[in-house]
Amino acid sequence: MRFKLLLILLVSFYLSKNGIAQNSFGFSGLMNSTNNISSLYGNYEASQINFSQLKDWGFSFIYGPEFSSSVNLNIYSIAVEKRFSNHILSLRYTPGYQKEFNFNTASAIILSDSTRQSLSSKFSYKELFGLGYYFRFSDELQAGFNLRYFSQEFSREIISPVIADTIYLVRENQSEKLGLWKGELGFNYSFSQYFSAGISSINLFSFSEDPFDQELEKFKLKTEKGVMLTFNFSPSRTFGLSGIIESNKSFQIGVNGRITFSNSSVGIGCSVFHDKTQSPFIAGVIPSVNFSTSFLSVSLSGIKYFSDRKDYFSYGDFENNGITNVINNPYSFDKALLTIAFALNTIQEKKVEFADVKIIEDIYPALTENYLNKPFAVATVVNVSDERVNVKPFSRINGLSEELIYSPIISINPGDTATISYFTVIPENYAITKSEISTADFYILTSNEEFDDQIQKPVLVNGVNSWDGDVINLKYFIKKSFDFSISYSKRILSNNKTLFDTLENRLSDFYKTKLIYNSFAEAMVYVSDPRASSEYVQYPEETLKLKGGDCDDLSVCLSSLLESVGVATALVDYQLGELRHVNLLVNTKLSPSEAGLITSNENKYLIRKNNLGNDEIWIPLEATSLKRFEDSWQAGAEKFNKDALENYGLSRGSVQIIDVY
Question: How many domains are contained in the chain?
Answer without folding.
Answer: 3
